[in-house]
Amino acid sequence: MSHLLSVRDLGRQPYGRVLELQRRLARLRAEGALTEDILLLVEHDPVVTLGRGARPQSLPIPPAELERRGVEVCEVERGGDVTFHGPGQLVGYPVLDLRKHRQDLHWYLRALEEALIQGLNALGLGAGRNPGLTGVWTRGRKIGSIGIHVKQWVTYHGFALNVNTDLSYFDLIVPCGIKDVTMTSVALELGRVDAASLWAETRDAIVDGMGAAFDLSPAPVAFGRPIGFSP
What digits encode the pLDDT tens for the residues 107-162? Predict the structure, then answer.
């Protein structure tokens, strides 16, 4: 029998605020005070994040200049290199207890990819993996990025899927350290301009993909922060 996946759509939020929420939820999940797996969904203000594997050449523009252009820069504990989050991008932060699933980080990364692939396929967009690289691709272009952190077998950080993102932001960095990569979005690939409808359809498809990939039963999407967590 599959277990419940609680889903929270936080709307548009600053990166740091949601990072602290993830850390708190992960700690509670590890302690057993939180009994359900949770998927946080969010759209961030423009931010470049530097993972533990970030290399200087992946950030050719100094942080001070990025911040002058309205792009925050944050160093974080997730794996991976440099990436961008911003408006029009669906960011998902699964807080899962892998002791209830499978204690295997390679499996977890592939399952996250599978969730995105299944969600995109449901939208009519063929997607898949690129051998040797983490993330999700379509027609040779990268559409979804993944970077995780796991502590006491509880996950946080997660995935970022370009829905109707301004892709010019990716020109400011070397995305995930992959030189000459072409980034794309759901809207661009499907030729969709109905942003609000596409966002809702994509969110629901990805939630279903998470349920299928992790054998979980997603609860109806709730909006706002989990009860008991202040802004």
Answer: 999 999 999 999 999 999 999 999 999 999 999 999 999 999 999 999 999 999 99
All domains of the chain in start order, with CATH: 3-222 (3.30.930.10)
74 is catalytic: no
Query: Which residue from 36, 10, 40 is spatially nearest to 23, judged by alpha carbons?
Result: 40
Percent of the chain with pLDDT over 90: 93
The span from the CA of 99 to the CA of 39, in Å, is: 17
Phi, psi of 215 (to 5 degrees): 55, 50
Model-level pTM? 0.95
Q: Going by C-beta distance under 8 Å and a sequence separation of 6 or more, which residues neighbour residue 41?
A: 7, 8, 9, 10, 90, 91, 92, 93, 203, 207, 221
CA distances (Å), origin 68, targets 61, 107, 198: 11, 40, 31
User: Which of 42, 82, 176, 205 is labelled catalytic?
Assistant: 176
Contact of 173 with 84, CB cutoff 8 Å? yes
Dump pLDDT digits (tens) for 204-230.
999 999 999 999 999 998 987 665 555
| Residue in 231, 214, 230, 226 with CA at minimum distance from that of residue 26 | 226
Among residues 185, 41, 186, the alpha carbon closest in space to that of 123 is found at: 186
